[in-house]
Amino acid sequence: MASWQYDNETAITEAGPGRCSTVLxxxxxxxxxxxGGYACTAALRALTRLTGQPxxxxxxxxxxxxxxxxxxxxxxxxxxxxxxxxxxxxxxxxQAGRERLRTLATFGQLGSDxxxxxxxxxxxxxxxxxxxxxxxxxxxxxxxxxxxxxxSRVDVRxxxxxxxxxxxxxxxxxxxxxFADHRPVDVLALVLFxxxxxPSILGILDQAGWVPTLELTVHVRRRPVPGWITGRFRTxxxxxxxxxxxxxxxxxxxxxxxxxxxxxxxxx
Amino acid sequence: MASWQYDNETAITEAGPGRCSTVLxxxxxxxxxxxGGYACTAALRALTRLTGQPxxxxxxxxxxxxxxxxxxxxxxxxxxxxxxxxxxxxxxxxQAGRERLRTLATFGQLGSDxxxxxxxxxxxxxxxxxxxxxxxxxxxxxxxxxxxxxxSRVDVRxxxxxxxxxxxxxxxxxxxxxFADHRPVDVLALVLFxxxxxPSILGILDQAGWVPTLELTVHVRRRPVPGWITGRFRTxxxxxxxxxxxxxxxxxxxxxxxxxxxxxxxxx
Lengths: 268, 268
Prior knowledge:
2 copies of one chain form a homodimer. By secondary structure, chain A is mainly beta. Chain A has 4 helices and 15 strands. The mean pLDDT of chain A is 94. Chains A and B meet through β5, β7, β8, β12 and β13 of A and β5, β7, β8, β12 and β13 of B.
């Protein structure tokens, strides 16, 4: 048994060829439903094992129906292409006879190109400028209009100027994030962290309630150094009751470690 | 037989339950390989038919191996979840016994929420400012260092300030796009158009050659009105020989019609 909450609560058990199981813990809920970044983690763990490659270079998760917290889930995996440098695989996560989410991902090895650091054409996105964590506001101080069990598992601190719903002046949220039990961050955790901030649309709305993710794409760009992760999420595009939110995550050295984009539903 | 090149050259033939076939035409090549946006179009056509929903709300394409131009391809489809408002499905595209690309997508109906247009919280991205098409440079005047058969099929005109490789001052490309035979644009064509501009990394590199897409995500946000489409693509993140390029497409009314993001390989 691992000693960290995240590892215990995303553990998978082999259940035959191409099959494993997990239990979705209610501690990661947004309202009554497991957080999307959490719900796909056991599937990504299964795909890491299946591909034998450590780093999720590209992850696409399609949320089909709400997952059920407190219930066992079966994960069915398929290795689509095994390569030396990168492998692509998918996972279907089922509960009670219905598929809940479908995950398609390419895994590889980051940092294996020794010349990359010296590449004169290297480009990056400078980290967001934040007051120190102790001057930021915990996520549960940001009134989303819904119960946030997940704040027992991730410690999210929001920039004070962006922490009052409807008062940011723009659809943006930024802040710090780490595991509540101080588990070290790793590449899989970045996928979780890309979906663990309050919805950025709260910057211009008083309340948003549950903003369910329809589709989440994450590109992990670098293995993070230990410490806090900082993140910035922005919605620039809301139409037809659906929004596109872009996110960036940096590690404590200021390196860009992940990009995210999600299509989400605004229910009003 | 349809009268437009695009329809003829992405046509699918039913070949049994969950199977159809297409032929990838060399007219859409980048170098010796079918363009990625083109290669997934027959699969998206099959998924449109399978889901019975017209609009690709979210599309994720994972490119496993180069497709073979001039060769038949078999497309195997799976309806993952059929819903009243949205349906998710996937397609595997095979040639010569090997899967070439895997497509996962959610289809629905855009513009069905009558209140959306009046939504006070609606957000959008203003269109890129461009000189008229006749003052822009055709794509084949942009020296990518590779043969571009695709310019026989799409008419792409690049902003003059962004059309000389290595001289834009930033990794950005912007311009106009339409079908060469003036076929009207539709939602599927937006996926193609999201991958038909020169790589934006050419803004800061003399030559880029073939920049193969590993993964492409497109969100279609609105049905386009007839006329030219404008697009802007930017790379802000290049590390480890891989880049993330973000794109936006607008229709002639100035409405944002699609967003794109791709992970691509820079081979140097």
